[in-house]
Amino acid sequence: MNSLIGRVVSDKADKTISVRIDRSRAHRLYHKQYTVSHKISVHDPENKARVGDKVEIEETRPVSKTKSWQLVKVLEKTEKVGDK
């Protein structure tokens, strides 16, 4: 199974989170490092992850039209500042 680590950017939908995956790449000619990011919809059946959390996800069978990844575990929780 394919697994990735990324940051949660949205948790507004029920049982779904959006995770941003950042990768560092080098330019072919100039060899400068730059960041490429992808946003993936991930199935979170227990609604455990929150915005800003670092999570590990793995590829799975398609759960819906856009979701073919599932949350494995939350690696790092973020503290909410100024919760109203």
Summarize the structure.
By secondary structure, the protein is an all-beta fold. The chain has no helices and 5 strands.
Distinctive features:
mainly beta, single chain, five-stranded antiparallel beta sheet, OB fold (Dihydrolipoamide Acetyltransferase, E2P), 84 residues
CATH fold description: OB fold (Dihydrolipoamide Acetyltransferase, E2P)
CATH class: Mainly Beta
What kind of assembly state do the chains in view correspond to? single chain
Helix content: under 10%
Q: In angstroms, what separates the terminal alpha carbons?
A: 40 Å
Which stretches are low in confidence, meaning pLDDT under 50 for 5 or more residues running? none
Backbone shape: globular
Largest sheet: 5 strands, antiparallel
Class from secondary-structure proportions:
mainly beta
> SSE string, helix = H, strand = E?
EEEEE
Note the total helix count: 0
What do the pLDDT scores average to? Answer: 94
Tell me the β content: over 45%
Radius of gyration: 15 Å
The total beta strand count reads 5
The CATH architecture category equals Beta Barrel
Give the CATH H-level superfamily: Nucleic acid-binding proteins
Number of separate domains: 1
